[in-house]
Write a structure and sequence with these properties.
InterPro entries: DUF6070 (IPR045714). Helix 3 crosses helix 4 and helix 7 crosses helix 9. With 410 residues, the protein is of the alpha+beta class. Strand 4 and strand 5 form a beta hairpin. It has two domains: 169 residues, no CATH class; 162 residues, no CATH class.
């Protein structure tokens, strides 16, 4: 080959190699130009597959911070003026949370108070988003929530026609009462549903074994559609103070004719708080509850006699005291069931003047708004207190309700 021809050949070969190598670098780069740009890092394909700790688009982060700061500015004066304890362990009252919710709600956005005691404002926006997503339509919305410590969260939900994603940003107050936003977390929602009762239940994608040593429950539940005010009042006043933890008033079958199975020793502290509006003195009670105190309190809330109590409860006849131990290791195993909340779905006025509440057990940690249904019959007395008369579980699903562990032994 002549020298000039060889030179031309080498030049052409070099150009072809550059073209091929350049193309390969673009193919192996795996950079999706449509994917969000991470804050402080570059996205990788495996990030999207695992569904959690997804990279956050810098524009989305900036938008979230600006929106959340704007909302917090609206409620700064309310937070400043309220009694909230120490800055390390701030706690605001529900009235304060509702006032903050109203201020944010005036902007036309969905606004909620953490928990399920307060109806969501502008719930129609969330309702429409979930209906569209349920039909497979692309949609997005933003939900603001006031938390018990006065912090505020902004959660943007996006449905792309196949998957739903959550962009969550939390705002706190500095010592000088300035809004401060944390870095947003971006996750795919593993599964979700919008129930007939109006609950939005969803589960975030999270790390699981073998990456972690135990399975993580990542369910969240938010009541979207409002609960009837009469129902909410009944459950807040008569059921939630009792609950399903540390006693079996609402999770066992009993009636006036069948009183022996109740955990009276466990119930004492719940009735005490209903009666006196404060917690019991655990140190004093550890020595036992004086007979007269225990029996008179039980008679205020249950159709039970002193003779029945001495037979059914854990009773020290020699010292005339009822036994009591603090709820904790050895007599209580925390689980999703016991941290559930009662939700009234119906009220029946009976001919004898009593009322029967139809109650769904809402198990938030499992994303279930009707774990089981039970009926609580009570008589509302002249002073507004309830005499609890029976609890009937409508559907006995074997294995659904864990065995109850009595506070002081059966």
């Amino acid at each position: 080959m002549k020298k000039e021809n060889r030179t031309s050949f080498l030049i052409i070969l070099a150009v072809l190699m550059c073209s091929v190598l350049g193309g390969c670098s673009r193919i192996t780069d795996n950079t999706d130009t449509d994917a969000p740009t991470a804050v402080g890092d570059q996205p990788h394909a495996e990030d999207y597959e695992q569904g959690y700790d997804l990279p956050v688009d810098s524009t989305q982060q900036e938008e979230a911070e600006e929106d959340l700061t704007e909302m917090m500015e609206l409620i700064r004066a309310i937070y400043e003026d309220t009694e909230k304890g120490t800055s390390v362990n701030a706690v605001i009252t529900q009235d304060t949370a509702v006032n903050m919710q109203k201020s944010i709600g005036e902007e036309g956005v969905p606004a909620a108070v953490s928990g399920s005691d307060v109806n969501m404002l502008n719930y129609e926006v969330m309702d429409q988003f979930l209906k569209e997503a349920s039909e497979g339509q692309e949609a997005e919305t933003v939900l603001y929530r006031i938390h018990t410590d006065g912090t505020v969260s902004r959660e943007k939900f996006t449905f792309d026609g196949q998957d739903m994603y959550s962009l969550y940003t939390k705002g706190r107050w500095t010592d000088t009462m300035e809004p401060e936003c944390g870095t947003s977390s971006y996750s795919r929602i593993n599964e979700w549903k919008y129930t007939e009762k109006g609950w939005f239940s969803y589960e975030y994608c999270t790390a699981q074994p073998p990456e972690l040593t135990e399975v993580i429950d990542a369910y969240e539940m938010v009541r979207i559609r409002p609960l009837e005010e009469e129902y909410r009042e009944m459950q807040t006043k008569y059921l939630k103070p009792i609950g399903y933890q540390g006693n079996n008033l609402l999770c066992s079958e009993w009636s006036e004719e069948n009183m022996e199975g109740l955990d009276y020793n466990g119930l004492y502290e719940y009735f005490y708080k209903l009666e006196y509006g404060k917690e019991i003195d655990a140190d004093k009670c550890s020595e036992g509850i004086p007979q007269d105190d225990f029996e008179s309190l039980m008679a205020e809330y249950l159709p039970v006699t002193a003779e029945q109590l001495r037979e059914y409860a854990s009773y020290d006849a020699e010292n005339k005291r009822y036994n009591w131990v603090r709820l904790g290791v050895g007599n209580y195993a925390p689980n999703a069931f016991w941290t559930s909340v009662p939700e009234v779905t119906g009220i029946t006025e009976n001919e004898d003047g009593t009322i029967t509440l139809t109650v769904d057990m809402v198990c938030e940690k499992k994303g279930n708004d009707d774990f089981y249904t039970h009926e609580v019959t009570m008589r509302i007395q002249d002073d507004g207190k309830a005499m609890y008369l029976s609890n009937h579980i409508l559907e006995d699903r074997p294995g659904m309700i864990p065995d109850y562990q009595y506070r002081c032994g059966e």
